[in-house]
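Fill in residues.
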C-alpha cells in the first residue's frame, strides 16, 4: 500500500533576519577635498606641474612696489568638516515567535504487518499499560464490545485508538447495504471493505506507536473469512479476545439499541448460538454477564497480560 507524504515547505522567514534598517543618509561623510584643489573643482586643472613654492615674500610697506616674479595663487580658505550626524540606535530585534506546527515536516513511517509480541524474558505478566498492542474484541451484538473497547482505549497510559467496524461500515451514506434488509453481495462487499479499511488504519497507527483495539462480530464457523481476514489486514501479532455474556443479557442490551444496529430477538439468539462455538477454540473468553464496563476493561487487561506472556495460536 502506498502512503502519500507531503513535500516539506521551507520555514517562514523569522523576524530580525532581513536587511538592516534605520540608517540615515546624513551619517555618511562627504569626501575631503584633495590637496591642491579648491572646493568646487570637478577635476584637476591641466598644464605643467607646479614648481615648489620659493621662500615666503618679505612684507613691504603699503604702496611699495611688489617684488618681481609670478604672483602666488590665492590660497583657498580652510573649510572645516561638518560634524557627523549621530547614528540612531539600532532597533532591538523583536523576539522570534514560537515555532508553528508544520505537519508537512513530520515523516510518518508506513504501516506494516504487526508481528507476534515477544514474551518477557522472565515469563512474568507483561505491563499492558505501557505496551503497544493490537487487540480484536469479538462478540455478538449486545455483548458490549464497543463500550468496553472505547473505555479501555481512553484509560490506557499510552496512546490508543479505538476502531469500530460498524462505524467504518456506516461511512457509506448513499447505497448503504443494511444486512437487516437481507444478506447479499452488496452487504458482503461493504463488510469486506470496512474490515480492510480498519486493518490498514490499525497498521498505520501501530507503526507510529499508537495501540489499537478493534471490534467485530467474527463467527467461529467462518474463521477463514473472519480471523483469517483480520490476520491478513493487521498481522499475526493481533490479539483476539471474545466477549460472550449470557443470552438474556445480550437480549436486554440489544433492546436498548436503536437504528440499524438493533436486531430482532430471533437474530440475536441465532448469532449468540453461533458465537458459543468459540468455547474450546483456544481464544481467551470473558463472560461479562455480571460485570460493568470498567470491570470488564480491567479483566481485559489481565487477559492481555497473559496473552503477551503466551500468545494464543490462531
Amino acid at each position: 500500500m502506498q502512503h502519500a507524504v507531503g513535500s516539506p515547505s521551507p520555514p517562514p522567514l523569522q523576524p530580525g533576519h532581513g536587511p538592516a534598517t534605520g540608517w540615515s543618509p546624513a551619517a555618511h561623510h562627504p569626501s575631503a577635498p584633495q590637496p591642491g584643489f579648491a572646493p568646487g573643482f570637478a577635476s584637476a586643472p591641466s598644464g605643467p606641474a607646479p614648481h615648489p613654492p620659493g621662500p615666503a615674500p618679505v612684507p613691504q610697506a603699503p604702496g611699495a612696489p611688489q617684488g618681481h616674479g609670478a604672483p602666488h595663487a590665492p590660497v583657498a580658505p580652510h573649510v572645516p568638516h561638518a560634524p557627523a550626524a549621530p547614528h540612531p540606535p539600532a532597533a532591538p530585534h523583536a523576539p522570534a515567535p514560537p515555532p508553528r506546527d508544520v505537519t508537512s515536516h513530520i515523516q510518518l513511517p508506513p504501516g506494516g504487518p504487526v508481528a507476534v509480541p515477544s514474551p518477557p524474558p522472565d515469563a512474568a505478566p507483561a505491563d499492558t499499560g505501557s505496551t503497544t498492542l493490537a487487540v480484536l474484541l469479538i462478540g455478538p451484538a449486545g455483548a458490549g464490545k464497543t463500550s468496553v473497547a472505547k473505555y479501555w482505549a481512553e484509560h490506557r497510559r499510552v496512546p490508543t485508538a479505538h476502531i469500530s467496524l460498524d462505524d467504518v461500515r456506516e461511512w457509506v451514506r448513499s447505497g448503504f447495504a443494511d444486512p437487516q434488509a437481507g444478506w447479499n453481495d452488496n452487504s458482503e462487499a461493504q463488510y469486506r471493505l470496512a474490515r480492510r479499511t480498519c486493518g490498514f488504519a490499525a497498521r498505520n497507527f501501530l507503526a507510529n506507536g499508537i495501540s489499537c483495539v478493534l471490534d467485530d462480530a467474527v463467527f467461529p464457523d467462518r474463521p477463514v473469512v473472519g480471523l483469517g481476514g483480520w490476520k491478513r489486514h493487521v498481522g499475526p501479532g493481533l490479539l483476539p479476545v471474545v466477549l460472550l455474556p449470557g443470552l438474556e443479557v445480550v437480549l436486554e442490551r440489544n433492546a436498548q439499541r436503536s437504528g440499524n444496529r438493533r436486531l430482532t430477538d430471533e437474530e440475536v439468539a441465532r448469532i449468540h448460538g453461533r458465537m458459543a462455538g468459540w468455547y474450546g477454540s483456544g481464544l481467551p473468553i470473558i463472560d461479562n454477564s455480571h460485570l460493568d464496563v470498567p470491570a470488564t476493561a480491567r479483566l481485559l487487561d489481565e487477559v492481555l497480560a497473559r496473552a503477551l506472556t503466551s500468545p494464543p495460536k490462531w
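The helical segments are 145-154, 165-169, 185-207, 227-233, 247-255, 265-275, 293-309.
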